[in-house]
Amino acid sequence: MSATDWFSSGGWAVLVLGLAIVCLALGLARLALLLRERDRHNDAQITALRRELTGLEQGRSDLERLSATDPVTGVWNYRYLQQALAEELAWAVRDARPFALLLCEIDGFGDYTAAHGHQRALGTLRDLAQRLSVEIRSRDTFARYGGDEFVVLLPGARGDGAAGVAERLCYAVRRGLASSAGQQAATAGPIANGSAEPRLTLSIGIACFPESGEHAASLVAAADKALAAAKAGGGDGWRLAEIDAVLSE
Fold first, then answer.
1. Confidence band of 62 (pLDDT split at 50, 70, 90)
2. Do 119 and 19 belong to one domain?
3. pLDDT digit string (tens) for 31-43?
4. Which of 35, 61, 195, 240 has the greatest count of CB atoms below 10 A from its CB?
């Protein structure tokens, strides 16, 4: 069959149809390519957005932690303590669960500051706070109450358990400062006025929920009273609020 006969018998229609099919296939391939490119672009944008959101969340978390951290000692601050104490009270009331509040104060810190200066005293305060914070459980709360005072919240603890923690905290200060004092004596001369090195120890007042109080104010007041008794007894020790209440009656 000649070309003329082939075209005249409808071959041209087949050719046109074939070309149309080829064009359609090319168009579909191009469309698929464009869709894949768009998907890759969208995936890249989504990944970038997720990365940015993760960074923002991390930044927000860091800011929240920074706002709740004491800048001098690096432990939780008073603002965080108020929130933690309110939450602990709510859980204790709801679940009838005990907990203990320890109010801690460094004995002799004023004399230490006068002898060594403000900057060194702040460094020592930070070292003490960090040393004490590692002596408690991860679920406990250790926060700076103000000045040279700290508060420890012990969920689930009763008098005996809280007393054991208090004894451990007192020993940590006694042991740590004895070691650092020996190192300082070997590298530094006597204090400028020739007086003895101020002795730093820890006094602690313990209040337990619900025996010592059922509200934040009453618990802190009971712990403060017990702390005063511990300091009146010479410091470097602890007192339990309910025992002090019994003795004072």
1. low
2. no
3. 888 888 887 877 7
4. 240
Peptide bond into 155 cis (omega under 30): no
Helix (H, G, I), strand (E, B) or coil at 105: strand
**72 in any annotated domain:** no
- For residue 160, what are the domain limits? 78-248
Q: Are residues 123 and 222 in the same domain?
A: yes
Residues constituting the chain: 249
* pLDDT, tens digit, 9 for 90 and up, residues 166-221: 999 999 999 876 555 544 543 344 454 555 667 899 999 999 999 999 999 999 99
Residues 6+ apart with CB under 8 A from 191: 115, 116, 197
Overall number of domains in the chain: 2
pLDDT band at 248 (very low <50, low <70, confident <90, very high): very low
Same domain as 61, residue 82? no
Structural domain contains residue 233: yes
Q: Domain end: 12, 45, 67, which one?
A: 67
Do the domain assignments include residue 116? yes
- Count of CA atoms in the C-beta half-sphere (13 A) of 121: 19
CB count, 10 Å around CB of 244?
Answer: 21
User: Among residues 176, 245, 240, 175, which one has the least CA distance to residue 205?
Assistant: 240
